């Protein structure tokens, strides 16, 4: 069910970019950077692959019975994060809104660092540490999805509180709300990631006692 929701939101997010038509871009393209659309599309498609592959990396059955598959998809996942994360730093430098820009750049740095930590840990056979960094990394991948849930909800809250009035200019409201939505999703997802990690440690300790 969760995988289906992730897939549906992910597909909805990438749909304006599937035809590779810059005129359909929802991101305002900077004419001073001719490769803006190309780098954006590289970011989007590789991030989508990571988004879809991520949940399968956490399935215990696959890890225990098909370790070669887990390793292969893990390599694809981490390569997508590293390339997409680098592309997102480049497009992030051209993001017009300051709140959104700082959120994206912080997210990109954390995304890259946690992927590198996860990779180093597994190369050195530190399995628990690898798992911990992968939980953090996938929580950051999911920020894109969670922000798309938070933003419409926060627009409804603003409407109910009379902070915006009808008829609304949707582009203006989205532009105002997206930056805060991404920051909120980063905080929420990282808190949930740490909670998941702590629960696993507690479970293991209880089993040992
Ligand atoms: C987790 C790390 C991520 C970072 C740091 C990041 C960063 C960015 C940045 C900087 C932009 C340009 C925004 C602008 O200039 O206004 C962007 C756009 C976009 N990203 Fe990501 N992103 C991430 C994850 C994802 C994921 C997992 C997806 C899923 C497919 C995704 C899909 C998109 C889409 C579709 C756009 C175009 C904006 C839109 O049409 O709404 N991103 N991202």
From TrEMBL:
InterPro entries: DUF2306_membrane. Keywords: Membrane, Transmembrane, Transmembrane helix. It comes from the Bacteria. The chain crosses the membrane at residues 36-56, 76-96, 102-122, 138-160, 180-198. This is DUF2306 domain-containing protein.
